[in-house]
Design a protein that fits this description.
The protein is mainly beta and 427 residues long. The chain has four helices and 16 strands.
Length: 427
């Protein structure tokens, strides 16, 4: 695995060398010069903060630089392939309760952001608590993972950010949503396109099975200039928090290149022993000797104000997984995204994906090594785009077709056709 370390170091060195030949770093960087994948949802005042302001209670928040916001999401998934049956896996993750309306999650966020480009000492933080069916699928090891029932709660994010005087650098300490991937867990609405109407309800295989959900540790962010940002740090591993399945740390690195406000390239690498990656009170003994290497590349291009395109690639290699003797112990895939905003009310989103698990189905719990293909067509509908409050209401109906080269779906099917929809309200 040393070759992968050298590979990442070479990329960082090349990116940094190019960055230093670029223009000097200004004291501030415009928000629209940063990649959409890193934009914060707090950039626009939330209805909750607006309510506090109207009630004359926002003074303390404003003086302290605090922001309070959240969202509520509920959805429905209909499996048109396995008619009349709720048995069998779907492999589509969070919204996998067949033929039933579910409360995906209620999220409440309190944050204070810091801007390292001001070259001033500052301290910020982010706290996010969620409640709903999604929480059961994203608990980190040792944090909320002893709960039972469909609806659960989870402390999804809890970290502090420290900016330093004279340096465009910040240090993050705590637990955060993972950095890799085109898609984003936070309601899947603050993703790489940066626009809630440009995301889908269901998730890709890559997001679900080739990337961690959350990470806990320390991360340094260096904003070299408006085009280049480098992150590097150490974490306890995939989905590890108050407990760790092994006693080894992971390396985490990210390089972001934004040559313009229309284009972004983001490369992420994690390396370290990961087995086991699950959560619960009965984890098998951890493996400290065999480092997994996970590589992720995201590219986004905004052709016009209405048309955006994205690509996501993931590759994971595990040299050894205890008790897994067959398979090549590799998995990953590629996905292409296209989004077209027809109007302020209606946006069309598409996703085409290939995902391969050559590790005897280990990454997603399939019975054998399997290739998956999926095509998703979705529509983001904002019925009241000009209303101050109702403009935060979003409906996302979608149709999705999944195909595999092994009979893994439902009761032994090689394909799966689902009709999904959620309603989401940000506040």
């Amino acid at each position: 695995m040393k070759s992968f370390r050298y590979f990442f170091a070479a990329i960082v060195w090349t990116f940094a060398a190019t960055a230093f030949r670029a223009e000097p770093l200004p004291r501030t960087i415009a928000a629209d010069s940063l990649p959409a994948a890193t934009e914060q949802p707090s950039a626009v005042q939330s209805p909750l903060m607006g309510t506090l302001s109207n009630a004359g209670l926002s003074g303390f928040f404003t003086r302290s630089g605090l922001n309070l916001y959240g969202y509520i999401e509920a959805g429905y998934m209909h499996d048109a392939t396995a008619q009349g049956s709720n048995d069998g896996p779907t492999f589509i993750g969070f919204n996998s309760f067949k033929n039933d309306v579910i409360l995906d999650k209620i999220s409440l966020n309190l944050e204070r952001t810091v801007d390292p480009t001001t070259n001033k000492f500052d301290i910020g933080f982010h706290l996010e608590e969620i409640y709903g069916a999604d929480a059961a699928f994203i608990h980190a090891n040792g944090l909320g993972d002893a709960q039972h029932g469909r609806e659960q709660k989870d402390l999804l994010q809890a970290y502090i950010d420290i900016a330093f005087p004279g340096l465009p650098v910040k240090i993050r300490l705590g637990k955060w949503i993972e950095l890799a991937g085109f898609e984003h867990f936070s309601a899947n609405i603050y993703g790489a396109f940066g626009d809630p109407a440009r995301a889908q309800y269901s998730y890709s295989y890559q997001f679900l099975y080739a990337e961690p959900g959350t990470q806990t540790g320390a991360l340094a962010t260096w904003i070299v200039n408006p085009q280049w940002t480098i992150d590097a740090g150490f974490t306890r591993g995939w989905n590890q928090s108050l407990k760790d399945a092994n006693s080894s740390l992971d390396f985490l690195g990210r390089v972001t290149f934004t040559p313009s406000d229309k284009t972004a390239l983001i490369f992420v690498m994690t390396e370290g022993p990961e087995f086991p990656t699950g959560f619960g009170t009965n984890l098998s003994p951890g493996d400290n000797t065999n480092s997994w290497t996970a590589l992720d590349l995201v590219a986004t291009q905004k052709f016009t104000d209405n048309l955006s395109f994205g690509l996501g690639f993931d590759y994971v290699s595990a040299p050894q997984i205890p008790a897994l003797t067959s398979g090549s112990k590799q998995w990953g895939g590629a996905a292409a995204y296209l989004s077209y905003a027809m109007s302020r009310v209606f946006t069309i989103n598409t996703r085409l994906e290939w995902y391969s698990d050559a590790a005897d189905g280990y990454s997603l719990g399939a019975p054998s090594s399997t290739n998956f293909y999926e095509a998703t067509l979705s529509f983001a509908v904002k019925p009241f785009p000009t209303e101050s409050t109702l403009s935060h209401l979003l409906f996302r109906p979608e149709i999705r077709y999944d195909l595999s080269d092994q009979p893994v779906f439902g009761t032994g099917d090689k394909n799966q056709f689902t009709i999904n929809m959620d309603a989401l309200f940000t506040f």
